[in-house]
Amino acid sequence: MSASEQPKFDEMHAPDGSVREAYRGYQDWLSAQDSGWMRRKNFEAESFFRRTGITFNVYGEDDAEERLIPFDMVPRIITGGEWRRLSRGIEQRVRALNAFMHDLYHRQEIIRSGRLPERLFRHNAAWLPQMVGFTPPGGVYTHITGVDLVRTGPDDFLVLEDNARTPSGVSYMLENRETMMAMFPELFSKVNVREVSDYPRRLAKSLAACAPPGTVGKPTIAVLTPGIFNSAYYEHAFLADQMGAELVEGSDLRVTGGKVQMRTTVGFKPVDVLYRRVDDDFLDPLTFNPDSVLGVPGIMDVYRAGGITIANAPGTGVADDKAIYSFMPEIVEFYTGEKPLLPNVDTWRCADPDSLKYVLDNLSELVVKEVHGSGGYGMLIGPTASKKEIAAFRDKLKDNPENYIAQPTLSLSTCPIFTKQGLAPRHVDLRPFVLCSPDGVDITPGGLTRVALKKGSLVVNSSQGGGTKDSWVLDD
User: Fold this and answer.
1) Which pLDDT score is estimated for 307?
2) How many C-beta atoms lie closer than 10 Å to residue 114's C-beta?
3) DSSP bridge pairs for 162
4) Positions in the chain short of pLDDT 50
5) Contact (Cβ atoms closer than 8 angstroms) between residue 14 and residue 469
6) How is residue 439 annotated by DSSP?
7) Residue limits of the Circularly permuted ATP-grasp type domain (predicted)?
8) For 221-287, where are the alpha helices, taking DSSP H only?
9) Are residues 463 and 356 part of one domain?
């Protein structure tokens, strides 16, 4: 049975049409509202986003100017009990990822044990030999992680992928909540929703706890951005402002006196923690790409000498690899001694001949992804692809099978969105944001819900026509 034929789990309504527990308070409020007033509020939300400049860039298109982030004003709601179960699984996974990163750059016990093939990182561009034998301050590699989750049933949450390099989207989570509270203040007095607005404070606190040994006084934190043309620049500026940190570009920084220092109106000032939103390859032209003008020449030398914390640590992109993802159940068990509380989506590794044969025989029913792909690009959704697209992807798989993994086309859960005709179900995923420091793991209640605004679509990425929702975790 294909995903299109499988029954969808509706998060708001049970099969008999009754409203599920999570949405009862919201439904009571909604049923008392005038439909015309709701339509005006929907227009107001779009105007709010335009005024505040909540946009993103799409690369590789003729009209690659900034676009408005589509926002839907019907919240995605999770009960407190559901969130507690999710949080335990998320924390387990993030702790395992951090331990995996340390092991991969030190003794590589998981490879010696035969649990993980050496080829997965030996030929992986995200694995950095410059990190071998080095432990970041506080032993933390994955300071900020985004764990993408999908739901297929009442108690069935699955991890779709891990984002441990430079996870984005948290600014949209915060602006979604601010928009909802501005538009419907009375709603939050009727439904007890856990707070997310303190995320910037918690992020600053978590980053400060990772400052290098010997840091005197309050650590100086800066956010390194590639600049205004980056697709997530709005978020970089937003987080720096909310944390009270400096927003810097590579040209604002230099290495002097064994420290990375930033330009200020009164001279240069040392930076203790750099929250970088620049990819590894562009971080240091003396170590990586010599043509980079986005990074800081010599920063890796300062880093390895213990003079600065870089968040996330260089080399964590290995954990974003979808082939590595397919081994996460083994990784979690190896480092925690426990079975994963949150299962993966079933995954076929096309590098394996038997798996490749299965995938080639069933392309029309599967989702095929590039191992290093992101943003919904470079993938095939078999059930919605044309015969021509499937044939072209078949050739790609045969030419370079190691570059791909395949997964079943899941019957993702749906949440209602507001349309001119009323509420209508659309597929969603969820990206909780996780902070890790020597003080522990801190998970923001909720996260970013992305929604496929097109009827029947399974692609939720903003770059592919998706939108966002406010994510509510009930405080019970």
Assistant:
1) 96
2) 8
3) 147
4) 1-5, 58-64
5) no
6) T
7) 75-452
8) 233-243
9) no
